[in-house]
């Protein structure tokens, strides 16, 4: 009943099942009942703004700060009511603070866009149609087999299928996830029969 209500309200789309089936190397069944599942893509987006939403989103975030909102109210009151001080005395500093902060946040977001594009455009090797193909990390799909060499960054969440080490292990660092720089040992996936 609860699932039906969630589906009707749009929180839980009806075409998604409770289990996920991942087809290795994206080899889908030829016959039978197959419903394609939508998975998120592998693009990394750490930026907050786009060209279209920068001004409204930035203004909204800035006026959520109590000091900026207070000075906006003071400025509006000075515009509407005859006060002994000029509205410029509160409006000009507010405009200056808002402008400088917007420029700073815009520059920081531009740097995030550059870093995202660098990570998303990193070359990776993926098995497609039985051969090793070079592509960008943003084009990795769920089910792809990815080759990662020594000292390379993992381009996605991966399951270790094999390793060139005799014991089938590899050592990884998770510094980009949790800041820890020590090596962790991972064992290769063992198929159960």
From TrEMBL:
Domain P-type ATPase N-terminal: 36-90
Keyword field: Membrane, Transmembrane, Transmembrane helix
GO molecular function: ATP binding; ATP hydrolysis activity; ATPase-coupled intramembrane lipid transporter activity
Signal peptide: none
Residues spanning the membrane: 66-81
Keyword Lipoprotein on entry: no
InterPro entries in UniProt: ATPase_P-typ_TM_dom_sf (IPR023298), ATPase_P-typ_transduc_dom_A_sf (IPR008250), ATPase_P-type_domA (IPR059000), P-type_ATPase_N (IPR032631), P_typ_ATPase (IPR001757)
Keyword Kinase: no
GO annotation terms (biological process): phospholipid translocation
This protein's GO CC annotations: endoplasmic reticulum; plasma membrane; recycling endosome
Domain P-type ATPase A: 124-181
PANTHER family: PHOSPHOLIPID-TRANSPORTING ATPASE IF, PROBABLE PHOSPHOLIPID-TRANSPORTING ATPASE
Name of the protein described by the UniProt record: ATPase phospholipid transporting 11B (putative)
